[in-house]
Amino acid sequence: MMRRTAITFLFFILLSSSAYAADCGGDTPCLCGDRVVASRTLTEADLVASVGCHSNGLYINTTGVVLDCGGLMIEGPGVYDGIRVEAAGVEVRNCSIRNFRNGIFLKAANQSKVISNTVWDNSRSGIFLNNSIGVLVQDNIADGNNDGVGIYSIGGRGSIFEGNSASNNGRGLAIASTYDVQANNNTASRNERYGIYLFSTTLSTLADNTVEKNGLYGIYLLKDSDENRLDRNQVWGNLEAGLYLDPTSDYRITLIENAFCRNSNHDILVDSPDTPYGSKNTCNSPGDWNDAGQSNCTYRCTPGDGAISDCFDGTPSGVCSSDMPLYCDEGILRYNCTICGCPIGQSCDKNGTGGCYVESIYNCSDGTRYGHCALKKPVFCQDGELVDNCDICGCPPGYGCNTSSGHCFMVDVCQDGTFYGACSSNVSYMCKSGRLVQNCTLCGCPEDMECNSTSERCYLVSCISDQDCPGGYCSGPYCRDREALGEACARDAACSSGHCVGGTCVSCVSDSECPTTEVCSEGSCRAVSCPNGIVRQHKCFPFDCESDQDCQAHQECVNRYCSALFCLEDQMIVDHECVQRPFTLYDYAFYMLIGLAAVISIAAAHLYRSRGRKEGGPQAGEKEEEE
């Protein structure tokens, strides 16, 4: 009887490694790869939480399903998705997801909820929302998801992120290509690059978040993330800057009662923000930021600002949490099984992550855990045996992967390290003739995108408006690349130039869009024809002259323009030049009259003096001499 039970148990373990093997939920326990079609709370009878999954964890495509893991852990092989949701109104709660590509992945899962889960040690994202509207992501812990993202949302709109902790990831909370998002009361700390990251995200609010000790920026707004509001956030001790506003993301930014203190290089890093508004903020190094009516932040940081408190679950700093193996390290909960131990039935991870894992009878002889890659590529631990699987584990540098056999073979590589004729790690690109080219038909697309077999480019699976398509436009339900000049179009947004005229993309519709020396003609900017003139403000102003002979007799040609000629009083204009006026009979008569007038004046004076002597006798001097 015991032998039959053991055989049955092993049989179910083997079934757990298949992808989407069967339906489960309701009263039916779940195995790895099953599709959950009815609400269920997992128990020890659910083998998906008892052994490591070799492929996907669980898949939900039924509206309204509630999956409660009851605190149990689902562990993967380093790839695939832990829980994948592709239906509206689904709720995933109380799950611990580890070592998948994405811990919890939601695709077009509108009005769903992700509550009180722990996602860690996943290679891409702990929680990933793709084109999902109105999702509530609440009270989750996303910790140590390698260099990926703790919580990541792209596309969609109107989601709420509240009370989550995202620590020790590449990026803590990343939100892209969306709007009307609320991120409140979250903690983002000790992430490799950014605490909270907004990319092409508008009309959203970040409030009451604690963002501290991240490797670059605490809060980073990038690529047209305009008209956002930050209220009462505490941003401390980040390496490069507390808040960084990219030059394209500072339009109508509002900052109210935030504290940016003890950040290594800048509290606020912004260059001449456009139409900002701020009030009652605290900082010491604000860059070009000024609160309303201030030439800085309203308040200055004090030495006590940014002091580290206990962890958010109430655990004092330096003490193990009641939730093994979490340890409170200066206000941050970290996995540390060496200090805090592991729950019963789990072992401390010897690979240095600090977490715990469930022992499996299918671990391999070299110590590699079931469903994991060994240190030596491409060796993979499968059902207790070491086998080559380069499709999962990859190959050493200079080797290519034979996906059929799983073996590696020696090949030449392109200068960027991609094998000739092989697909790049940058999904959708392949190495061809020594350079990377897009070929999504052969190399596929990221999970949140699909392939355009005509252009060989990837685009988002679905869109509602152009805002869902950074760098492209929304056509029907899909995002597409903007068309080049001369390509067919239906509206302005379809063109890279922003102008669709008569069903064709053109570069301009008015002269003002061209350089001042060009005009807009038939949809293109063309040089103004002006062989004998100068072009100003899109018009030709002809020159007046090439020489003086082209001007009127009283003008001269100066810098190719006719200008009036001015001469001295004794000069006259002759053939566009000033020359000495000739001596005429009038000049002779004039000077003779002047001379005659002088002679008459002298003679009159002499006659007057002579007449005076005769009438008056001797002068007074003569009389005195006679006496």
Examine the secondary-structure arrangement and name the CATH architecture of the largest domain. 3 Solenoid
Alpha carbon gap, first and last residue: 184 Å
Instruction: Give the CATH class of the largest domain.
Output: Mainly Beta
CATH H-tier superfamily of the largest domain: Single-stranded right-handed beta-helix, Pectin lyase-like
- The name CATH uses for the topology of the largest domain is Pectate Lyase C-like
The structural domain count equals 5
Give structural notes.
With 627 residues, the protein is mainly beta. A hairpin with a 2-residue loop joins strand 49 and strand 50. The longest helix has 32 residues, at 585-616. The N and C termini lie far apart (184 Å).
Provide a concise account of the structure shown.
This protein is mainly β. It is built from six helices and 56 strands. The protein has five domains: 1-123, no CATH class; 138-298, Single-stranded right-handed beta-helix, Pectin lyase-like (Pectate Lyase C-like), CATH 2.160.20.10; 412-481, no CATH class; 483-542, no CATH class; 547-580, no CATH class.
Q: Would you spell out the secondary-structure blueprint of this structure?
A:
Layout: H1 2-15, E1 23-24, E2 34-36, E3 40-41, E4 58-60, E5 66-68, E6 73-75, E7 81-85, E8 91-93, E9 96-98, E10 102-107, E11 113-115, E12 118-120, E13 125-130, E14 136-138, E15 141-143, E16 149-154, E17 160-162, E18 165-167, E19 171-179, E20 182-184, E21 187-189, E22 194-202, E23 205-207, E24 210-212, E25 217-222, E26 229-231, E27 234-236, E28 241-245, E29 254-256, E30 259-261, E31 266-269, E32 277-279, E33 326-329, E34 332-335, H2 337-340, E35 346-348, E36 356-358, E37 379-382, E38 385-388, H3 390-393, E39 399-401, E40 408-410, E41 429-432, E42 435-438, H4 440-443, E43 449-452, E44 457-460, E45 472-475, E46 478-481, E47 500-501, E48 504-505, E49 518-521, E50 524-527, E51 533-536, E52 539-542, E53 555-558, E54 561-564, E55 571-574, E56 577-580, H5 585-616, H6 620-626
Parallel strand pairs: 1-2, 2-4, 3-5, 4-7, 5-8, 6-9, 7-10, 8-11, 9-12, 10-13, 11-14, 12-15, 13-16, 14-17, 15-18, 16-19, 17-20, 18-21, 19-22, 20-23, 21-24, 22-25, 23-26, 24-27, 25-28, 26-29, 27-30, 28-31, 29-32
Antiparallel strand pairs: 33-34, 35-36, 37-38, 39-40, 41-42, 43-44, 45-46, 47-48, 49-50, 51-52, 53-54, 55-56
